[in-house]
Amino acid sequence: MNNFSNLNDTFTLNNGYKIPCLGFGTWQTPDGDTAVNAVIEAVNLGYRHIDTAAAYKNEKSIGKAIKESNINRKELFITSKVWNKDRGYKTTLEAFDKTINDLQLDYLDLYLIHWPASENQFKDWDNINLETWRAMTELYKSGKIKSIGVSNFMPHHLKSLMNTEIKPMVNQIEFHAGFMQEETFKYCNDNNIVIEAWSPLGTGKMLDNNILKEIAKKYNKSAAQICIKWCLQNNTLPLPKSVTPSRIKENTEIFDFVISEDDMKTINSMPYFGGSGLHPDKVDF
Ligand code: A2P
């Protein structure tokens, strides 16, 4: 088990680049003051890793917050993602330019393909993913992105990318108690791809679960803290989202306890629940 002692201890990616072990999620964070204030709050509380995406439509506000926070750029780890309509070589390069412009940055720490092109929507889905990857690889080699990866990819989507010059360093997937995506989880661990967990709280659906609440009581922690720590103890990097200052803080207070092996087993074997239902081969966006 990894031994993280604070939110800026790091995972090391397969290219040697380091990524803080707790990220601040911003999916469903509304643009404008809410996003600006949430990010400033997070940075003030010590978060240095912020996860956004063009599709979240809050990059401009996040850029503003980063600027206002006055933190040295090198201390921050900023991730964004290329949206589905921009898949392909040229369009990915253009999307990247818009993203760093909106974020007011001159490089990204991590850029991800947000969703795989799938067989359900495209005959040449594999080739589309490879073309998008070619653009990502070029941006990576030019130094405009320090690490590259994918999101919501299953092993069959990853396969072709694994045979290219630069292999994905990260796969950001839905991962929480009741939905561990075992096949993708194993594939990424076997291939040295760091898994990031989106919706580690199941967009909040985990928090009323009696098993998690009972376990939380034992450690004098909240169910949210158990969910976040559980990700880390499973070697995945959690990206909890909150716009509420007390919760943003609570979600960092996870380094002063360890979930026992027995309790990990109990959570790992919970039956399916709380999933978003967004299957990468079936989504219609
Ligand atoms: P809010 O943003 O209003 O504070 P996920 O990260 O799994 O997508 O979950 C995000 C949801 O969980 C949001 O609705 C967020 O609410 C809520 N949330 C985040 N942290 C906590 C917490 N510590 N306790 C309760 N709810 C939380």
State the total count of DSSP E strands. 10
| Rg (C-alpha, Å) | 18 Å
- Parts with pLDDT < 50 across at least 5 consecutive residues: none
Q: Give the CATH architecture.
A: Alpha-Beta Barrel
Question: Main β-sheet: number of strands, strand sense, barrel status?
Answer: 8 strands, parallel
- SS summary, helix count: 10
What percentage of the residues does DSSP assign to strands (E)? 5-15%
Percentage of residues assigned to helices:
25-40%
User: The CATH topology, please?
Assistant: TIM Barrel
Bound molecules: adenosine-2'-5'-diphosphate
The average pLDDT value, as a whole number, equals 97
Structural class: alpha/beta
What is the first-to-last residue Cα distance?
37 Å
CATH superfamily: NADP-dependent oxidoreductase domain
Short description:
The protein has 10 helices and 10 strands.
Q: How would you sum up this structure, described in words?
A:
- The chain is of the alpha/beta class and 285 residues long.
- It has a single domain, classed as TIM Barrel, CATH 3.20.20.
- It is built from ten helices and ten strands.
- It has an eight-stranded parallel β-sheet. Strands 1-2 form a two-stranded antiparallel ribbon.
- α1 crosses α2.
- Adenosine-2'-5'-diphosphate (A2P) binds at residues 25, 199-204, 207, 222, 224, 240-244, 247, 250-251.
